[in-house]
# Entry
Amino acid sequence: MRFGNSGAGDPSVGTSGDTEPAECPYCGSTETEREHPKGPGLCRSMHYCTACEEPFEKFG
Ligand SMILES: [Zn+2]
# Structure
């Protein structure tokens, strides 16, 4: 009557696909970095293309 293993499994492990790379509207590259929005009430995200070094915004 002894439980050596006390449930080491986590069923809620999984990637939620929240880190999709944004595609650059200028060169179509996905070598982009996401920048954190600095203003309040901003419903769009800022991205920066490392390929052509252009910042762009993406909605949604
Ligand atoms: Zn680009």
